[in-house]
């Protein structure tokens, strides 16, 4: 494809994307396909001759689009928001079109320095300030918070084991080395701990408050003391601001205090997972939810969720960037240049060597939409969640199963059991919950996520899609009541 052919095709593709976004509200939310349907729409072998763009776009329409669960749909309330603002889509296109190679500063100085700029902008906007020693937060863009957590725990491992990667590795470093989190943390936290070599026996689930589901600092302190008495070495604590199940907020200030008060042989790395909720750091009125973050060692959050910069855009900030670079550094001869020592080498701040020009997505989003508009949209979502919560509380046969801390409302419909005259309980209530949410989701009119909490099924309503307005939230409440009643 020549540049002129690309120009013509690009105009058609942009028009197609714009038409798709316009059409999203009229589509079913849940993908309307069975397993194998999309695959069956493709030939078994790759084409040997060029295909015209019209044919490709037609297949997108006929085969691919029906197989998409429309997370940009205003009636999508599942999982967490996965917004893809069109401003950031343009940045993604620019990144792909430039075709840069991000393996060193020299391979693309602009990639490195624009990433530094936008990370510094975001730190300032989020109130991430220098510590008492004057060290600022140093940020880099990763693909997801899952990868960021892995990178963070690799640094924690090496800090606790005196850089054992340069000698025997964990096998000869003593220990055992322990990671602390809760059973409410995202599954990626345990996965990162396992991939970092800690092992299941060294991952502690610290007890949580039975209502808020937040980590109990007193229980953490007790667990730290018990492990130290048994000869274990605490390596890391992963606290969560905005857990996946209920958006619970661990009390980071008290957690940091408990960690720093423990008589540990090596410093304990404190990582904050704020994958979805980190967007709220843009709102000054939400600052108290993040109290204590400045005392942590690392924080990760995803602008590609609620804030709306298109996937994959995850921010990882660390205090001790020199330690991270010692752990992650790779310096083959073919990547050395005269700029070494005077520039940032982003390959030394994460797992991959190569990287895309991801910063363009975030830069375009900030430039073309503006921070004020993003903040107002977040405030709109919080107000809509508050309204929705009030409807649930006021309804006799509905209940909140966890406190609302942000834009996610966790609820359960509890009708009267005609056999007993009492509210439905146990397995019968679980069956009822799964039945009505399945009816709702299969209808295509809206989508919500069922999830287990304390061993029983509940439903999460996560409000935050860019296109979702109050009218959509009102429509969802009506739909929930109808489907729960079997209408």
Which structural class do the helices and strands define?
alpha/beta
Shape: globular
Radius of gyration: 24 Å
The fraction of residues assigned to DSSP E strands is 5-15%
Give the H and E element order: HHHEHHEHEHEHEHEEEHHHEEHEEH
- For the secondary structure, the number of strands is 12
Helical fraction: 25-40%
Give the biggest sheet. Answer: 7 strands, mixed
Low-pLDDT ranges: none
Q: Give the overall pLDDT as a whole number.
A: 96
Placed side by side, the strands forming the largest sheet appear as 2-8-7-6-5-3-4
Query: How widely separated are the two ends?
Result: 54 Å
Question: Count of DSSP helices?
Answer: 14
Describe this structure in words.
By secondary structure, this protein is an alpha/beta fold. It has helices at 3-23, 37-40, 53-64, 86-98, 109-125, 145-160, 187-195, 217-229, 252-261, 321-328, 359-369, 371-394, 426-443, 470-484, and strands at residues 76-77, 138-142, 177-181, 203-205, 233-240, 269-273, 298-301, 314-318, 398-400, 408-413, 447-453, 456-462. It has a seven-stranded mixed β-sheet, sandwiched between helices. Strands 1-11-12-10-9 form a five-stranded mixed β-sheet, covered by helices on one side. Helix 9 links the parallel strand 5 and strand 6. Helix 4 (86-98) runs antiparallel to helix 11 and helix 6 (145-160) packs across helix 7. The longest helix is centred in the C-terminal third of the chain and has 24 residues, at 371-394.
């Amino acid at each position: 494809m020549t540049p002129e052919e690309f120009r013509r095709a690009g105009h058609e593709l942009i028009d197609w994307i714009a038409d798709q976004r316009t059409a999203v509200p009229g589509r079913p939310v849940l993908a309307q396909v069975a397993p194998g349907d999309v695959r069956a729409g493709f030939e078994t072998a790759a084409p040997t001759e060029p295909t015209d763009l019209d044919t490709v776009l037609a297949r997108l329409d006929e085969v691919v689009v029906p197989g998409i669960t429309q997370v940009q749909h205003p009636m999508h309330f599942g999982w967490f928001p996965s917004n893809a603002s069109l401003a950031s889509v343009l940045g993604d296109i620019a990144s792909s079109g430039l075709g840069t190679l991000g393996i060193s500063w020299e391979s693309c100085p602009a990639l490195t320095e624009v990433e530094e700029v936008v990370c510094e902008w975001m730190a300032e906007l989020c109130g991430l300030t220098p510590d008492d020693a004057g060290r600022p937060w140093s940020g880099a863009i990763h693909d997801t918070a899952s990868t960021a957590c892995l990178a963070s725990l690799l640094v924690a491992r090496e800090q606790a084991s005196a850089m054992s990667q340069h000698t025997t590795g964990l096998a000869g470093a003593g220990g055992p080395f322990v990671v602390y989190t809760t059973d409410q943390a995202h599954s990626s936290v345990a996965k990162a701990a396992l991939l970092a070599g800690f092992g299941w026996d060294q991952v502690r689930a610290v007890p949580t408050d039975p209502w808020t589901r937040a980590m109990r600092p007193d229980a953490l302190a007790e667990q730290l003391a018990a492990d130290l008495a048994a000869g274990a070495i605490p390596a890391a604590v992963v606290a969560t601001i905005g857990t996946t199940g209920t958006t619970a907020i661990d009390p980071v200030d008290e957690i940091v205090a408990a960690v720093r008060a423990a008589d540990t042989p090596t410093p304990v790395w404190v990582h904050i997972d704020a994958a979805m909720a980190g967007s709220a750091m843009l709102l000054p009125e939400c600052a108290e939810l993040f109290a204590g973050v400045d005392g942590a060692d690392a924080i990760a959050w995803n602008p590609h969720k609620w804030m709306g910069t298109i996937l994959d855009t995850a921010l990882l900030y660390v205090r001790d960037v020199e330690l991270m670079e010692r752990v992650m550094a790779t310096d083959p001869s073919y990547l050395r240049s005269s700029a070494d020592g005077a520039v940032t080498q982003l390959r030394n701040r994460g797992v991959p060597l190569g990287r895309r020009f991801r910063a363009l997505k975030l830069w375009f989003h900030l430039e073309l939409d503006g921070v004020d508009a993003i903040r107002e949209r977040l405030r709109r979502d919080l107000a809509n969640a508050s309204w929705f919560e009030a409807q649930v509380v006021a309804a006799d046969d509905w209940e909140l199963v966890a406190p609302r801390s942000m834009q996610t409302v966790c609820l359960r419909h509890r009708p009267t059991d005609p056999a007993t005259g009492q509210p439905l309980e146990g397995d019968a209530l679980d069956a009822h919950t799964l039945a009505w949410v399945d009816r709702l989701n299969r209808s295509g009119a809206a989508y919500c996520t069922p999830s287990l909490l304390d061993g029983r099924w509940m439903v999460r309503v996560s409000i935050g899609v860019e296109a979702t307005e109050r009218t959509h939230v009102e429509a969802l409440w009506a739909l929930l009541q109808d489907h729960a009643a079997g209408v």
